Amino acid sequence: MPNLTAIVTTFNEATHIAACLAGLRFADEMLVVDSFSTDGTPEIARECGARVLQHEYLSPADQKNWVIPQAANEWVLIVDADERVTEKLGEEIGRTIASPQACDGYEMKRRSFFLGHEIRYSGWQHDWVLRLFRKDSGRYLERRIHDRIAVAGTVGRLKGRLIHYSYRSLDDYWRKLRWYAEWSGAKARRRGAHISSLHLMLHPPLRFLKAYLMQGGFLDGMPGLVVSLLTAVYAAAKDVHIWESAAGGEGDLPPGKGTRG
């Protein structure tokens, strides 16, 4: 049976790392790459049996591409500290990589929670991520957020779900919203995008209606309403950053540390 290395990228993930690693004990190696946490994350990870490496964080892709070649095994599973691999998914991963017909990479669907509530709709029902691949086949494309991996070869899909606790708190959400909105707005502006008054008036409410009605947010009850409203807020923030950039604002992100795309 081929061997598997589970990789977790961290920065100040003391509240998550033990629970994350507990679900990865089926792997032959647990490898944590930490960007110099100050909250004891590396020590907790070592106590849980992980091999810990530290590396300066430049971007999600750079961090993962640096650590992937250092995995000891043929197969690699990438997991964020706020994600959990269930026992059922772990068993499926073991069976899959042992098959002679195994593909070179596999996507899995995430089951996401927002502030403690599971979000089944609101556009989140299409959240497939490619996290399992042969070490020599996969490399991440350089992007500031929402990193994406390219696999040389065939890609399949797993049935098991990856649990994702998306935000620790509303403060955590606002911090990441600002980051995503600034970066996305700057990128759109570099492509020549511009924002009219009419667009700014219509885009956020239309984005809300899409998430809440067309993508079924109303089926998630109050949490779905909140997520749909925040989706509209994100759309407005992104548009304002495009407008700001066009008006002479800086329009780009400062360098900084982080772990998630």
Average pLDDT, all residues: 89
Q: Percent helix among the residues?
A: 25-40%
List the uncertain runs. 250-261
Strand count, sense and closure of the main sheet? 9 strands, mixed
Number of strands: 11
In CATH, the architecture of the largest domain is Alpha-Beta Complex
**Rounded Rg:** 19 Å
- Examine the coordinates and then state which fold CATH places here, giving the name of the CATH topology of the largest domain: Spore Coat Polysaccharide Biosynthesis Protein SpsA, Chain A
Distance between the termini: 32 Å
Shape: globular
Category from helices, strands and their pairing = alpha/beta
Strand content: 25-35%
CATH homologous superfamily grouping of the largest domain: Spore Coat Polysaccharide Biosynthesis Protein SpsA, Chain A
CATH class of the largest domain: Alpha Beta
> What series of H and E elements makes up the topology?
EHEHEHEEHEEEEEEHHH
In summary, what is this structure?
38% of the residues lie in helices and 26% in strands. It has 261 residues and is an alpha/beta fold.
Could you outline the blueprint of secondary structure elements for this entry?
Layout: E1 4-10, H1 17-22, E2 29-34, H2 41-47, E3 51-54, H3 60-67, E4 75-80, E5 83-85, H4 87-98, E6 105-114, E7 117-119, E8 128-134, E9 138-141, E10 148-151, E11 155-167, H5 170-190, H6 197-214, H7 221-246
Parallel strand pairs: 1-2, 1-4, 2-3, 6-11
Antiparallel strand pairs: 4-8, 5-11, 6-7, 6-8, 9-10
Helix pairs in contact: 5-7, 6-7
